[in-house]
Amino acid sequence: MNVTAVVENFASTGKRGRVSGMQPVVVVQHPLAQCHLAAIRAADTPSHEFRRHLNHLARLLFFEASRELPMREISVQTPLKQTQGAQLARPLVFAPILRAGLGMLDGILPLAPEAVVAHVGIRRNEETALPQAYYANLPASLSAADVFLLDPMLATGGSACEAARQLKEAGAVRITMICVVSCPEGLAAMKLAHPDVAIITAAVDAGLNDRCYIVPGLGDAGDRYFGT
Ligand code: PRP
Ligand code: URA
User: Fold this and answer.
1) Which of 120, 125, 205, 207 reaches 20 to 30 Å from 219, CA-CA?
2) Looking at the record's lineage, which domain of life comes first (predicted)?
3) Which residue segment(s) compose the domain that 132 sits in?
4) pLDDT-based confidence at residue 189 (cuts at 50, 70, 90)
5) What integer pLDDT is reported at residue 7 of this predicted model?
6) Number of domains forming the structure of the chain
7) Catalytic amino acids?
8) Pocket test for ligand 1, best of 51, 97, 204 (most atoms within 8 A of CB)
9) 126-141 CB burial, b ≥16 within 10 A, e <16
């Protein structure tokens, strides 16, 4: 079974990786990822189980999203012999969009505990579905880092576009978005505003309903994660 399906690949090169100006969208079809996704979609999954499944799913998505990170060789002394090992070549920054992105951070941060966390507070206006930025705490410079933008839902794309804009304004030049459920509208908005941002997702759903919720989706990710 395919581990991933590259929905929109690098037509010119035919290989995965970051090519300037091109936006790959990778749908992670790993069986474990799809099992966790089914669990968080289910309306009768309680918050404590929703949290557990979202944490696991985020970790699997990050595993895929981090596959191409550059490494540098280091020398390692084992108890027996000098040998070669590897370190990440650049610092990592995780940028969860508040609130629901925090649910992904909880799953991912243990894999890279040395990462810096950049908080981006954006909420959708319930009437207009437009993003409203209400808080930001970003490191002074993001230019040297590999930045992972975290949000379970890519609906209209308004929140993700605004978050990527803020990250770029703070110097980010390498941004990968990890989201759980996306849809064509959100992917199109990101492609238009931020074609250089790669997107790793567990699903591309059919589209939005008249309240701009993803269908079939999973409902309001933040409310379900935090039990509000
Ligand atoms: C949700 C979700 C995204 C956004 C997606 O957050 O977590 O941030 O909506 O919608 P969009 O693509 O149309 O912008 P919400 O605004 O509900 O805030 P919350 O995480 O605090 O619940
Ligand atoms: N925000 C969510 O949490 N879910 C959606 O379907 C759309 C926006």
Assistant:
1) 120
2) Bacteria
3) 4-9+22-69+88-226
4) very high
5) 57
6) 1
7) 124, 128, 220, 223
8) 97
9) eeeeebeeeebebbee
